[in-house]
Amino acid sequence: MKSTRIISSILALSMLLPLAACGKKATQTPSIEGYNLLWSDEFDGDKLDETKWNREKREPGWTNNELQEYTESDENIFVKDGKLVLKAIKTEKNGKAYYTSGKVNGWNKSQFQYGKVVVSAKVPEGQGLWPAIWMMPNQESYYGQWPKCGEIDIMESLGNDTTVSYSTIHYGEPHAEQQGTITKEGDERFSAKFHEYSVEWEPGEMRFYTDGELVLTCNDWFTAEEGMDDKPYPAPFNQPFQIQMNLAVGGNWPGNPDSTTDFSKAEFQIDYVRVYQKAEYDTNVTKPPMKFREALPDGNFIRNGDFSVAENLDDDIDWKFLLFNGGEGSAEIKDGEMIIYTQNYGTEEYSVQLVHPDLPMLKGHKYKVTFDIRADEARKCIVCVSAPNAGWIRYLQDTSIDLETEWKTFTFEFEMKDKDDNNGRLEFNMGKHKDTATIHIKNVRVEEI
Questions:
Q1: Domain enclosing residue 141, as ranges
Q2: Catalytic entry in 56, 156, 173, 337
Q3: CATH number, domain containing residue 164
């Protein structure tokens, strides 16, 4: 009954929203089986519908060291040809580059609790551009400030690589996250055409899709004050949220614009936003128990640690080779070794990266990491055990090791002092330090001691 009362009150609000849009060309919003349309914006008019959206103002550097000022200006936020456009503009202020951009949110106007959100959008290309479609609580203080309040990122993309789209949830404390990615190449990349992004948000589960393809499923989040017990599940995602859309410039994740960034094309275009709800939701949900993978018979949590199988290094099973931020290279398994070739070391230590996920990490338990490694020339490598779902904290801290042309065995021991995690990740990071010599790895083990 609780969920029914919540939905009924929001439906009453949503029925008023279209009345303020009289005079617009009407688009027939499609129905979805099993859902009722709660509200939508097809951007058919000639200006932003401010019964649904607020223009958010923010000074530069408000979050993430971003460079833009978010303004209320029609130059940064406007409706054109049936699209909402959030435009980033580069000017000059006090002799330095200055950036303005657009952000809209539905705070106190179009908030809702549970439903299916569907957004069609086309992202811009350009180093330092960071478009996002995301959701925040209408009352951020209910469980405490970020990340305790929760955040739902339906879509984020980085302008320097628009072949990748990210869907993420943030929660905690401590800060934790779960993220899924999807890749589209060539004429299908996210800056080349409009794509449809959606999330199905229910009391005990969220499912993220891109063009109807499942990208991420989440059902085991939490939130808590530091050092205290978790709030009752499904907190913090059991309160009204509102949709936000923006085009950021610069910041910790995308990095700053450079001479290649074409601001004449720095437009984040949104074709429509549609919010649907089921007639009712069962709020009597329980958090699923955390499942921990067992070690192999010899006690090793690393699968294929002897590299006896030439597995696919592009999938999410066992070993995976990754490139980011200018990193260029390749990897192969050959003659019982993992061999990593680097053509460009990139700008970050993780620009050239080899990882093994799904490591069970239990609070209070001790672990040992062992491996043999060498390089064709003397160089460095960074090793750690990280937490992709827990804010990328380190269970084994980033450790720089010096590689030689002869095989060396390295052993590291650590005690896991954080919350239980069934998705720890062993990482070999080989970027940034101007090293490109080929690396050879064998006999990798992670075991409990």
A1: 2-277
A2: 156
A3: 2.60.120.200
Which of 277, 295, 329 is where one domain is finished?
277
Alpha carbons 189 and 166: distance in angstroms, whole number: 13
Where are the extended beta strands (E) located within 159-311?
161-171, 176-183, 195-202, 205-210, 213-218, 241-249, 267-277
Instruction: Please list the ranges in the chain whose pLDDT falls under 50.
Output: 1-23
- What domain count does the chain have? 2
Look up tokens 């699968």; give the residue: 303
- Does residue 222 sit in the same domain as residue 364? no
- 185 in Cβ contact with 314 (< 8 Å): no
Catalytic residue status for 447: no
Q: Do 215 and 196 form a contact (C-beta atoms < 8 A)?
A: no
In sequence order, which residues have a C-beta less than 8 Å from that of residue 277 and are 6 or more positions away? 7, 10, 11, 35, 36, 38, 112, 114, 115, 116
Instruction: Read off the pLDDT of residues 301-355 as tens digits, 9 standing for 90 and up.
Output: 999 999 999 999 999 899 999 998 889 999 999 999 999 999 999 989 999 999 9
| Domain assignment of residue 434, yes or no | yes
Q: Which among 151, 173, 177, 267 is annotated as catalytic?
A: 151
pLDDT digits (tens, 9 = 90+) for 107-126: 999 999 999 999 999 999 99
Burial of 350 (0-12, 13-18, 19+ CB in 10 A): buried
Residue whose token pair is 């006896």: 308
Tens-digit pLDDT profile for residues 179-215: 999 999 999 999 999 999 999 999 999 999 999 999 9
pTM: predicted TM-score of the whole model, two decimal places: 0.83
Residues 105 and 242 occupy one common structural domain: yes
| Pair (14, 92) in one structural domain | yes
Asked whether residue 383 falls in the same domain as residue 243, the answer is no
* Residue 289 within a domain: no
Q: At 128, phi and psi to the nearest 5?
A: 90, -5
**Annotated catalytic, 72?**
no
Check whether residue 150 and residue 252 sit in a common domain.
yes
Question: Is the same domain home to 164 and 43?
Answer: yes
